[in-house]
Amino acid sequence: MLSLTCKTAIKAVIYLASKYSAGEKSGIREIAEYIDASEHTVGKLLQTLVKHNVINSTKGPSGGFYISKEQYRQSIMQVVEAIDGSRMFKECGLGLSKCSSTHPCPIHYEYKEARDIVERLFKDKKVIDLCEPVNKGLAYLIG
Fold it and tell me: 47-84 burial string, b = 16+ CB within 10 Å, else e?
C-alpha cells in the first residue's frame, strides 16, 4: 500500500526521533546509511518532510535535520500524507475508478476493511510509539 519512498520517509523520521532526547541533528548521509537507503532519495524526501512541517532543518556547520517536541508526538499519518497523500485510503484494491459500496469490485468489502485498519493504525500510532521499541532494541529499521 505504501510507496517505497514513504516507507523510507517513515524510517528516516523514526531515526530522527531516536536522536530527539539527545537534541542531536543528523545529516543526509548519516540517515541514509542508518536506514540503508540512497542518499539522493533520502535528501529529496527530507526536503519534502521539512516543507510539510513533519521535520525541521537548519543550515550551516552545526546544521542538519531534527524533530521538535510536537513533531515527536505527531501521528505517522503526517508522514504518509506528506509523501503519498491520503488517496490510498480511498482507492479501489483493483484500481477501478468507479468502485463503491453501490458498485463494488470483487474484493471491495474485504479490501475496504483492511484499508480502514491500516488508516486507523497510521492515525493512532505516533512517532514516539515507533521510536521507543527501536531505541530499546525491540524493533529494527533495517533488515
Answer: ebbeeeebbebeeeeeebbbbeeebbebbbbbbbbbbb
Task: Point out which residues pair with 65 in neighbouring strands.
Answer: 26, 57
pTM above 0.70, yes or no: yes
Q: Are 1 and 83 in contact, with CB atoms under 8 Å apart?
A: no
pLDDT tens-digit series, residues 109-125: 999 999 999 999 999 99
Contacts of 34 (CB under 8 A, 6+ apart): 15, 141, 142
Nearest to 112 by CA among 94, 132, 130, 135: 94
> CB count, 10 Å around CB of 126?
17
d(C-alpha 114, C-alpha 95), whole Å? 15
Distances (CA, A) of 85 to 35, 80, 108: 22, 6, 21
